[in-house]
Design goal:
Layout: E1 2-6, H1 12-22, E2 29-35, H2 41-48, E3 53-55, H3 64-78, E4 82-85, H4 94-99, E5 104-108, H5 123-132, E6 136-143, E7 153-160, H6 167-190, E8 194-197, E9 200-203
Parallel strand pairs: 1-2, 1-4, 2-3, 4-5
Antiparallel strand pairs: 5-6, 6-7, 8-9
Helix pairs in contact: 1-6, 5-6
This protein binds 5-O-phosphono-beta-D-ribofuranosylamine (GRF).
5-O-phosphono-beta-D-ribofuranosylamine (GRF) is lined by residues 7, 9-14, 86-87, 107-109, 175, 178.
Length: 205
């Protein structure tokens, strides 16, 4: 499986994916790192690890269609057959979702379908979890469709929410399991073990 990773931030999930590939735990190749931000840490990491990079921002294109066409053409020339969103803070253009239907995943730092949707990213998620009084949080890997955080859930893991948690301490605990969950789920995709039936998806053993 040739994975194009999309990231807007530091890229610790991207790093976990690259480490899993290097250790032989994920039978795949990272063929592209795409970012909407020219100063994303993930771009530097890709350069260090020899992964082709692309800075691709909507503001450089005259229309949504031109932007989607450029993204699709770069994906095709990279040889990508799967897209893994890893802290990518933009909506994936509809034509790209359509071209990669059921072959785009995202990792979200909470237990969807709660605490997701537009504006629910980074510390906003963990603040909302703590404010809700929930006693567990976690990470979710889901398929990507046209809406933020709405596609079928493929895999989840839980962590406790502790009485003295701040958004930072909870984020740190969740991130540790993200780094295990995402490579493991991508492995299942690469081995053709992810089954999808309408709104439901699961990993076959
Ligand atoms: C992670 O918490 C991920 O769940 C969310 O964005 C964050 C990205 O972190 N979608 P990183 O850039 O991979 O370190």
């Amino acid at each position: 499986m040739n994975i194009a990773v999309f990231a807007s931030g530091g890229g610790s999930n991207f790093q976990a994916i690259l480490d899993a590939i290097r250790l032989g735990a994920l039978p795949a190749r990272a063929c592209l790192l795409l970012s909407n931000l020219s100063d994303a840490g993930a771009l530097n990491l890709a350069r260090e690890r020899g992964v082709p990079t692309l800075y691709c921002s909507r503001k450089h294109y005259a229309s949504d269609q031109a932007f989607a066409d450029a993204m699709l053409s770069s994906l095709r020339s990279s040889g990508a057959d799967f897209i893994a969103l890893a802290g990518y803070l933009k909506r994936v253009p509809t034509p790209v979702v359509a071209a990669f239907r059921d072959r785009i995943s995202n990792i979200h730092p909470a237990l969807l379908p709660s605490f997701g949707g537009h504006g629910m990213f980074g510390h906003h998620v963990h603040e909302a979890v703590i404010a809700s009084g929930a006693k567990v949080s976690g990470a979710t890997v889901h398929l990507v469709d046209e809406e933020y955080d709405r596609g079928p859930i493929v895999a989840q893991r839980c962590v406790p929410v502790l009485p003295n948690d701040t958004p930072d301490t909870l984020a740190e605990r969740v991130l540790v399991i993200e780094h295990e969950l995402y490579p493991m789920t991508l492995k299942a995709f690469s081995e053709g073990r992810v089954r999808i039936d309408g709104r439901r998806a699961w990993i076959a053993v």
